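Handout, page 2. Input:
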Amino acid sequence: MKFATLASCFERLNVTSSRNDMTALLARLLAGASPDEIGIVCYFTLGAIAPGYSGLTPGIGERTAAAAIALAGSVDPAAVEAAARELGDYGDAAARLTVAPPEGSTGPLRVTDVHRGFMEIARASGPGSADRKTRVLAAMLAAATPPERRYLVRLATGEMRLGVGDMTLLDALAEAFLGSKAERPPLEHAYNISSDVGLVARTLQESGLAGVSAIPVTLHHPIRPMLTQRVSRISEIPERIGSRVIAVEEKYDGERVQAHKDGDDVTLFSRRLTDVTHQYPDIVRHIRRCVTADTAILDGEAVAFDHETGTYRPFQTLMRRRRKHRVREVAGEIPATYRVFDLLYVNGESYLRRSYPDRRARLEEVLSPDEKISPADRTLTGDLDGITEFYLACIERGLEGVVCKSCAEDSFYRAGAREWQWIKWKSDYGTELADTLDLVVVGANAGRGKRAGTYGSVLCAAYNHEEDIFQTVCGMGTGFTDADLADLPRRFAGVRVDRQPARVMVTPQAVPDFWFAPARVVEVLGLEITESPVHTCNWDPEWRRGLALRFPRFVRWRDEKSPEAATTTAEVAAMFRRRREG
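Output:
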């Protein structure tokens, strides 16, 4: 496949406002890819060059991109930077260049050529690596057409802006090879346990559904985490879970970490499935020492814990460990404890289809706890009193709350799913909401007065998993400090787009001054959920109204969350329904 074919499809996707049209375009593209191309096409469409967990990214910043564009076009880098400022995008600046094909050119770029080039860039390291990256990118740009140059640069800088989500891509694969996007569920399951859409695509093309169904859990390939549901009142938990026995676990204000152990080889993955092994050398050390199984996959939470005072420290403290330098020194200043609440794989066997009690029992067999690593504290109960008593004890110890889990025979670990078998409860007093919402920022309005020069408010949306779209739920302008406001343009620079993204549903009344590709997640506290003709969350086309969050207030950014892990429209609807009924 010529890279020009891919770039042409991307150009059409950029101006497509319908998700169905987007899916159809992608299905035709994927159907025309060869087995050695289809995985690459999937990665490129998502703005990547490899599975996210691999850590392979071009790692090219604006300065290197400008240097490569200038080298390809034999122009001054300052002229490239000026064009990028004018156009708002280095990809558009590259497309504007007039470039003569290099001498000895072997013909048009192919998708596989581009992938090889980006893999060379991603693997370049050490002295002179920046120069090597510049030269490889410049060579590809010199051989490219204007549309190709636009997407080469956007891939290089990680700012693709197509707005295609994982589920839309899986829909397109189902449509291309199974005849209908209704056939997505088995593809989604395979993706949830492999976290590699390229692998799913290649397997589907070569071996059909039988091959996809046989994709195994693999060490050092993260499993997409199971997520919790929420309720409006603690009294709803026993009925919702529907299990005679309920496990009530501590809920921590830390970072979700999935640990893969293969002998002494340990890899840690974040909630977004990125490799965070370097951040937690102390946790790696204790997993090697305390997990007795030869191979295992654990799910748990890294938390900052002060052993001198016996108290947990807030999430923001732990995030200071997100640095590449002085890691061991900072680890000494901010020691982390790993609280393990699940076992997904052990000694070559997947435990995803084992019940929660079986998984927990096996976890306790293979984990020899110490002060740095231990199973999450819990109690077993069958009634509301037991849940409430343990919850209050957790609050007293400075924890966020509890997670209640089903102990039924079918209490399997459902990778990537948000199920009623896990329910969290944490109460923010002084508000009618039982919890904050994690929303996706999809737009912003220009600041005025004291906020001139930045954004005055942001447009926030919930995620509709069934349709793989984002539906607006509020505009938010309160809760930001002056520093937060000043930082907004930088935070959204890489995701600002010229038109409404195809996966964002908005009413005319809520159209913002600026659009953002769905990428950044924010934690929001509000007063209540109400019906609204302005916002599209759970939109009713007959009554022409949706649901909105009243008096939203900024709490913090949730950089560790992907947009698809945000609060769902179904959760918002459930919160509204229970408030109305209660």
